[in-house]
Amino acid sequence: MMLEYLEKYGKKEWVILRNIWMNKDGPFEGDFILLTQHMSYLFEVKNYTSNFAYENGITKFNDRKHSGNPIHQTRRNTINLQDICDKLSHRIHVQGVLVLVGVDNYVEIRSEVKDIIILQRNQIKNYIQQIAEKDDLYKNKPINKKSLLRHFEKYE
User: Fold this and answer.
1) Is 22 left (phi over 0), alpha (psi -120 to 50) or beta?
2) What phi, psi does 42 have (nearest 5°)?
3) DSSP states of 78-91 as a string?
4) What distance in Å separates the CA atoms of residue 91 and residue 83, rounded to the nearest whole number?
5) Rounded Cα gap, residues 136 and 48, in angstroms
6) Residue 133 CA to its chain's centroid (Å)
7) Residue 105, pLDDT score
8) Which of 42, 46, 61, 65 is deepest in the core (most CB within 10 A)?
């Protein structure tokens, strides 16, 4: 579904990478990496069917604490990808996005999360359209996607 939305509402010149494994201080996997003219986006996509809550670093599913934490995972993967991009150019900024796509998933974020974006299924289309609008307004030199892709190969 995420791929369909990126292709349908995104731009033809965007590069979409799926399930990319890299190694930066240990292995990590990005569900989707989107390269636009102006930025790179790392999407972690989760399909939960339970009630999901996040508060003060603690993740709960159906009011039970859970050791898996998709917010921390998204944060860690975003930092790793940013470090990799910085080795090529400090101009390439990475935005981490956690996408909770479960149709019946109830999401409650009780603590402020400033460094990544958290989207629910009904917000995906609008967010992709916002990225496209930012791309349309971008007037600086675009990201060299071919060079960045070659750079990523060093970390695969």
Assistant:
1) beta
2) -110, 115
3) HHHHHHHHHHH-TT
4) 12
5) 34
6) 18
7) 86
8) 42
**CA–CA gap between residue 62 and residue 91 (Å, rounded):** 41
Order of strands across the sheet with 94-100? Answer: 15-23, 27-35, 40-46, 94-100, 116-120
Q: Which residue has the higher pLDDT, 66 or 17?
A: 17
CB 118 within 8 A of CB 71: yes
Q: State residue 151 phi and psi, 5-degree precision.
A: -65, -40
45 contacts 101 by C-beta, under 8 angstroms = yes
Predicted TM-score (pTM) of the model is 0.94
Alpha-carbon span 88 to 148, nearest angstrom: 7
Q: What amino acid is encoded at 148 in this protein?
A: L
Report which secondary-structure segment, H or E, holds 126: helix 124-137
Number of H helices and number of E strands within the chain? 4, 9
Amino acid identity at 109: I
Cα radius of gyration rounded to whole Å, the chain = 16
